[in-house]
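Run log, item B.
One chain of 95 residues. Sequence copied directly from the ordering sheet:
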Amino acid sequence: MTKKDLMKRLDELLKEKGMYKIESFSGAISWNCNKATISNAIKCLEATDEEMNDYLTVVKLKYPNIYKTVVNNGNWLVHSHNRYAVWGMAKSVLA
C-alpha cells in the first residue's frame, strides 16, 4: 500500500472509533511517520474492543501501575495515546 492509502485507511478508522488522532510513544501519527508506524496504528485501531480488553488484562498482569493509570484516565479505548500504548505493550509482552 502507498502512504496515501495507509493515511486514508487511518482516517477512516479514526472516524469510525470517534477519535481525532492516535499517538505513538513518539507523538501523533501523521504524514511524517514511516509506513510501518502508520500500519501499526491501523492494526491497533482494527483490533476489536474485546481484543483490546484482553490486551489490557496482559498489561494489568505485567505492569499493574500502568494499568491503574490507564483505567483511571477515562475511556482508554478512545484515548489518543492509551489505546496505542496498551496495544503496543501487550504485543511486546506476548512476543
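Observations after the first pass:
- The CA atoms of residues 29 and 38 lie 7 Å apart.
- The mean pLDDT is 94.
Flagged for discussion on Thursday.
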